[in-house]
Every structure is written in C-alpha cells, then in structure tokens.
Fold this sequence. Notes:
The chain is α/β, with parallel strands linked by helices. The protein is globular.
Amino acid sequence: xxxxxxxxxxxxxxxxxxxxxxxxxxxxxxxxxxxxxxxxxxxxxxxxxxxxxxxxxxxxxxxxxxxxxxxxxxxxxxxxxxxxxxxxxxxxxxxxxxxxxxxxxxxxxxxxxxxxxxxxxxxxxxxxxxxxxxxxxxxxxxxxxxxxxxxxxxxxxxxxxxxxxxxxxxxxxxxxxxxxxxxxxxxxxxxxxxxxxxxxxxxxxxxx
Length: 208
Ligand code: NAP
C-alpha cells in the first residue's frame, strides 16, 4: 500500500461487505469524484458486532471478495487492517491507525447518510469526528431538511466535518444478494463478475 503515501485525500469505504456489491463500488466512485479524492481504501470489517451473525462469512472470505472486486483499479485498494485486528471492529481505532500510517493525508470516511443518525452510538464518536471528514451519501427521497439539521447538530456538538453528497437510490443490498443465492437466482450485474464466480465456486449463501 505504498501508493497511499502519495495520496493527499484518502477515501475510506468501510463495510461488512457480505458480499461487496455494485452499490458499494459506485458509491466509492461517486465519492471520489465528488470530493476530488486520490483513491479509495476499502476496509472490510473484522467483527461487525452490531450485525446479525447468522449469515456472516468470516472476515478472510469477505476480504477475499473485496480484493477481487477492486483488483482492476489502481485507485481502489483493499485493506486487511480490520480483519487482522480481530475483536469487535471499531471505526475510531481504524481511523487512528490510518492517521498514523498516512499522516500526509486527509481521511474521508464514506457512509450512507442514515448513519448520521446512529453514529453517536458507535464507539468513541468524538474520535471518529476528530480524525476524518464524513462523506455521507443521501439517497433520493431522504428528507434533506432533517439531514441538514443533523449535520449542523453534529458539527456544533463535535466540531465534526461533514459533506453531504447526493447519490441515486440503487435497490442493491447484500441481504438481497444473499437471498437470491439462497433461492438459486442470478446475481449477475449486482456484484462484479469475479466476485460472482467466487461466491458460486464456494457455494456461499446457498443454505441460509
Ligand atoms: P455494509 O452494510 O457493507 O455497507 C457499507 C456502506 O455502503 C454503508 O455505509 C452503506 O450505507 C452503504 N451502502 C450499501 N448499499 C448501498 C447502496 N445500494 N447504495 C448506497 N450505499 C450503500 O456495512 P455496514 O455494516 O453498514 O458498516 C459500514 C461501516 O460502519 C463499517 O466500516 C463499520 O465498521 C462501521 N461501523 C462502525 C461502528 C463502530 O465503530 N462502533 C458501528 C457500526 C458500523 P447504508 O447503511 O445507508 O446502506
């Protein structure tokens, strides 16, 4: 990940990625253009302690799929930092580590704008706000006045830096992809082809 030492604006796309899909990739691409980022660091979670573990593939497998998904782009890089760290995954720890690894860069943490309403329940939110700019994607139909009010509230309470980015409403979700696999339906175009082949070869999500 030597190339990241040259990047001045690093996007961080954290996710459970169970599995990674076209919506995640498009969001990253959109964020890169919107904020003029040099590139995106994809960060599969180690243990997403707030998520249902029922259908959760191990971190190593979600990492493998994420690597396949970004393999064809120099400006998309996959990190194993959270998977290697073990224990519950806390975003503040990841941002702390990235701050130390890439002191030359400004970090932009990319997330769905809904998260602005729950991020205060994440571990050490004040440390998250201190170490990054939040790049929050608002989908069509989200009430902009409520989002704007939340943004202002977080900025005043935590001295947070938050950019709101309009993003089209793509009805693609990891949950739906897992259900489709379970029903033997196609996931073509919902995930990159190498990821689709990997899921198929390993019979993932076939028995929910
Ligand atoms: P995920 O389900 O894999 O999704 C990753 C991101 O992609 C989310 O921000 C999600 O926003 C967005 N996304 C998914 N589908 C989309 C679509 N069709 N169009 C646009 N955006 C889409 O991952 P996650 O479990 O939500 O985790 C996200 C990050 O939050 C991870 O880095 C995780 O570690 C972090 N987190 C940290 C804590 C903590 O530190 N305590 C707690 C919870 C989460 P939406 O959620 O709006 O779909």
